[in-house]
Amino acid sequence: MSKSVEFFFDFGSPTVYLAATQLPKIAERHGATVLWRPFLLGGVFKATGNVSPATVPAKSRYMGDDLERFARRYDVPF
Length: 78
Hints:
It comes from marine metagenome. This is DSBA-like thioredoxin domain-containing protein. One of its GO terms (biological process) is glutathione metabolic process. InterPro entries: DSBA-like_thioredoxin_dom, GST_Kappa/NadH, Thioredoxin-like_sf. One of its GO terms (molecular function) is glutathione transferase activity. The protein has 78 residues and is an alpha+beta fold. The chain has one domain (3-73): Glutaredoxin (3-Layer(aba) Sandwich), CATH 3.40.30. The chain is built from three helices and two strands. The protein has helices at residues 14-29, 41-48, 57-73, and strands spanning 3-9, 32-38. It has a two-stranded parallel ribbon with strand order 1-2. The radius of gyration is 14 Å and the shape is flat. The mean pLDDT is 95.
């Protein structure tokens, strides 16, 4: 049985960008393939009555710090 990772992504998401820089290496290390699945995160927010963390000041600040930490840790341009 072959291993795969379904990766749902929205081009507008900075967290997706960072994750996508690491996922292929992780999948390869474990003998898995990545199945890239585009979707619209805004549609999910709307369907669930949720909002982007970027619109909530405290979440936005933390997310910004977290993204910077991730980028530094994995040496990813951000």
